[in-house]
Amino acid sequence: MRVLVLGSTGGLGGALARALRGHELFLSGRRPGPLRALAEEVGGKPLPADLSDELEAQALLEEAGPLDLLLHAVGVAGRAPVRQTPRDLLEGMLQAHLLTAHHVLKHARFRPGARAVFFGAYPPYVRVPAFAAYAAAKGGLEAYVEAARKEFLREGVHLVLVRLPAVATGLWNPLGGPPKGALAPEEAAQRVLRGVLAEPPPEVLEV
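^ Short-chain dehydrogenase, sequence as received from the core. Prediction below:
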């Protein structure tokens, strides 16, 4: 299976890459040093890129070639009340979650029956005070994937939206750490892969 893990230097992306060891792996992230170390560990090929730059995203996806599985484990978190949210925080959220997904789907090539996996959020977890920007980015991503799914099904490609509970990754560091009971990244990765590789693949996987 030919697999591309985007955001592979993050906690969830790294766990997904390790769980897929043995497949033909392409790994992408914005930190070249950790990316090369992970690629060496799992036997993958490192492809550093900033996915918010369309030309970089296009070059990455051309090098990766036709895929059986794409995992978009990309994103940032942040917290600020609406009246204190600077424009760059909101734009950064939309760019990290939504714009990168657009660039990926615009330029990716897939084999028949492939899965492209994106990570949304349970609305009750994120539609809370001080998370308006994050909730908007995740909500926009979910709507985008739902509409795009209909187009990609014509090509035999399945878009899967995954909703995870909190996962204990570095994403939570700016917020004071993960909440109590957060899933370990390794457990989250195993649950995600079991679900998205099922036959038939789900449209929405709630873990």
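The longest strand covers residues 110-119.
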